Amino acid sequence: MQKLVLTEEQQMLKDAARGLFSEQAPVSQLRKLRDEKDPMGYVPEFWNQAVELGLAGTLIPESHGGSEFGHVGMGQVMEEGGRTLAASPLFASGVLGACALMLAGNDSQKDILKGIADGSHLVALAIDEAGRHQPLRVATKAEAQGDSFVLNGSKTFVVDGHIANTLIVSARTSGGERDESGITLFLVDPKAEGVSVERTIFPDGRNYAKVTLENVAVGADAVLGDKDQAAGPLQRLLDIGNAHLAAELLGLSSEAFDRTVAYMKERKQFGVYISSFQALQHRAAHMWSELEQLKSMVLKAFMALDANDDQASMLASAAKAKASQVAELVTNEGVQLHGGMGMTDEFDIGLFMKRARPAQLLLGDFRYHADRVASLKGF
Amino acid sequence: MTDLETFRQETRAWLEENCPQSMRSPFKSDKDACWGGRKFQFQSEDQRLWLERMAEKGWTAPDWPTEYGGGGLSRDEHKVLLEEMARIQARPPLNSFGIWMIGPAILKFGSEALKQQHLPPIVRGEIRWCQGYSEPGAGSDLAGLQTKAEDKGDHFIVNGQKIWTSYADKADWMFALVRTNPDVKKQEGISLVLFDMETPGVSTRPIKLISGESPFCETFLDNVRVEKDQVVGEVDKGWTIAKYLLTHERSMIGNMGSTAAGQKTLSDLAVDAIGLEDGKLADSMLRTEVASWVIDSIGYELTAERARDEAKSGQGVGNVSAMLKYAGTELNKRRYELLVAAYGSEGLLWEGDERPAGALPQQWLRTKGNSIEGGTTEVQLNIIAKNILGLG
C-alpha cells in the first residue's frame, strides 16, 4: 500500500508554493483587494507568477501544456494558498475547470486546457441554484432546437463567474427537477446573448457570481460529455473539488491555529502569559489533535483520487466533512482566544473565519458530506 | 529469490506444519488468550503445543536477540512473520506484559545478568509479569508515588500499596516503581525493581469495577525483600524507564479507536439494531451521529497509519502517541454510547443469556476507563500542550 507521506517532488512543490504565497500573496493582499473593492478580485501580477511556476497546470497533462503532477501535488498548492487566504483563479480554473474538461471534454474542447495552464483562459463552474448545495437538483432547462439548445435558468455561488472566459453550466435536457438522469453540462460563453453575470459579495471578499440565462442559444459542440449523462462525471468532479477545498480549509485552519498559539504566548493577563492557563492549553491541544487527523484524511483522499481507488468518493466526502468541522472549530476558537482583538477588523484572525464559512458551504458542508458518507457506507 | 522471499517460503511451510488447526481462528473471547506463567491453565493441548513450538523458534518475541531466546528477526522478517500468521489466521501464541513491556525495558536498560535471568522465561511463557505503577495517592501524578524502598545493604525492604495492577493475582513477578530517595526532586528518587510475587509480604485483592469483574487488583507490599541486583538500570534513575514504558503503553491503549479485524463496524451494528428505511438508518438523528463517528474514526485510523509511515520514513512529529491515545479512547467511548442508544433499553439488559446485544452494558461501562488508564485524557492534553505546542 502506498505510504501516507509526500514524495520528495511533492514536498518540493509544497515548499515552492509556500514561498510564492507567503511572499507574493500574503493575507494583506486579500485585505487590499477587499478594501479597494477591486473589480477583478485578484492580482494579475500574482496570477502570472503562479502560472509561471506552473501551478495553473498542475493537474493538466503535459500534452496540453500542464505538468500532470496529480491531486496530491495540487493539494499541497491549495493547502499553502489556504494559509495566506490567497485569492486567485487557481481553484475555479486550475481544479474545477481543468478537471471538468479532462473528465468529459472531446478533443477540441480539451484545447481550452492549454489556455488554463498558461493562465490566459479562465473557467467557472455554474451548478448550484439555491443556497444549499444540491448538484442533482437542476431546474435550469436546455431545450433542443434542431442541433442546438436554448438555455433558461439561473445559477448562484459561481466561483470566479464574473471573470471567466468560459462557463460550465449544468442544465436539464430531460427528466424531472430532481432526477439523476437528464442532466447535461454545457460550455457557455459569458458574452453570449442572454447571459448576464452579476458579481455577488460574500464575507471572504472572494469572487462569486449569480449567472442568469435567458434564451441562450448554444450549438451541439457546446455539450460537454454525453447528453443526459452528466451526473456521473459531475459527481467525480465534485469529489475532486471537495478534496481540494478540504486542503484549502486544512491550510487556513493550520494557519489560524498557528497564529492563535503564537498569540497565547505573547498575550499577558493577570501578570502571566495566557498560554500558562490549562483551560486554554487543553483547547489548543484538542485543536492540534483534530488538525493532525484532518491532515491524514486530506492526504488519503488525494492519493485515492490519483489512484482511481473505488473509495475515493467516500474519502473525499469524509475529508470535506471533517475539514468543515475543524475549520469551524479552529476559526471560532481563534477569535475567542484572541479576545477583544479577535473581533477587530485590524487583526487578521477574523479573515480566516470569513473565508472558512463560504469554503465550507461551497460544494456541500459537513451535513451534506456526512449524509453522503453514510449513504456510500450503506446506512 | 531474495532472502526475504526465501524467509517467507520457509515461514509459510513451518507455520503450515506447526500451527495446530484449532489455533487458526480469531479469539472468540478474551478467555481464549494464552497468558502463560506458573499458574496458567492451558485451555487445550493445542494451545500448549502452539506456545511451545513458537517459543522454541523464539517467535513469541520475534525481534528479540537469539541469545536471550528471541527470534532475532529483522524488522522486515518480523513483518513477514506477522503477515504469514495473519494469512492462516494464526492466534498469537502468547499474550504477555513480559514481551510487551518489561522485556523491552530490560533489553534497553537492564544489566546483562538481568537479561540472562528474565528474558528467556518470558519468551517461553513460563513467567507472567504484572506492572506496579499506580498507587492510591499517585494516579495522574505518578511521580508522586510513595511506596518506600529502604536500603539494607545488599537488598531493599519495600513497603507500600499499588493499585490497578492488571492480573496481579495471576502473575508470577512484578516490575514496580518504588521510592528509593525521598529527599530529592520527586522524579529523581524513583527506581524500577523486580520481585517474585511469592516473596513474603506480597498480597493482592481483586477490584470490582462499575462494569463488574475486572483483571485489576490492589497489591499490598509489607516488608517485601527485593535484592539489589533486581534494579533495572541505576538506582534513583527509574523515571526515565517509566516514561519509556508509559509511551509504549499509551500506543497500545490508543489502538482501541480501531475496529479490530472481524469485529462488526458501528454502522453495521446500528443497522442490525434499528434497520434501514429507503436505504438509510431508520433513525435519522442517530444516523447523523453515527456518520459523524465514522468520519472521525477514519481520521483516527489514517493518522495511526500516517504516524507509522512517517516513522518508517524518518519524518513527522514522532510524539503523536499522546494524541492517538486521546483520540482513540474518546472515540471508543463514543462508539459504545452510540451502540447503547442504537439498541435502546434492550441493549442495557444486564443479565441473561438471550440478551440481543450480549454483554454490551458491561462493555459500555468498561470503556469509561479507557480515558483514565495509561494516562488520563487530561494528561495526554497536557503532554500535547507542553511537549508539542510549547505552551506553558
UniProtKB/TrEMBL annotation, chain A:
Its cofactor is FAD. Residues 7-119 form the Acyl-CoA dehydrogenase/oxidase N-terminal domain. Signal peptide: none annotated. Residues 237-372 form the Acyl-CoA dehydrogenase/oxidase C-terminal domain. GO terms for molecular function: acyl-CoA dehydrogenase activity; flavin adenine dinucleotide binding. The keyword Flavoprotein applies. Keywords: FAD, Flavoprotein, Oxidoreductase. It comes from the Bacteria. Residues 137-201 form the Acyl-CoA oxidase/dehydrogenase middle domain. It holds the Pfam family Acyl-CoA_dh_1. Belongs to the acyl-CoA dehydrogenase family. This is Acyl-CoA dehydrogenase. It comes from Marinobacter segnicrescens.
UniProtKB/TrEMBL annotation, chain B:
Residues 6-126 form the Acyl-CoA dehydrogenase/oxidase N-terminal domain. It comes from the Bacteria. Keywords: FAD, Flavoprotein, Oxidoreductase. Its cofactor is FAD. Residues 130-224 form the Acyl-CoA oxidase/dehydrogenase middle domain. GO terms for molecular function: flavin adenine dinucleotide binding; oxidoreductase activity, acting on the CH-CH group of donors. Residues 236-389 form the Acyl-CoA dehydrogenase/oxidase C-terminal domain. This is Acyl-CoA dehydrogenase. It comes from Marinobacter segnicrescens. The lineage of its organism: Bacteria, Pseudomonadati, Pseudomonadota, Gammaproteobacteria, Pseudomonadales.
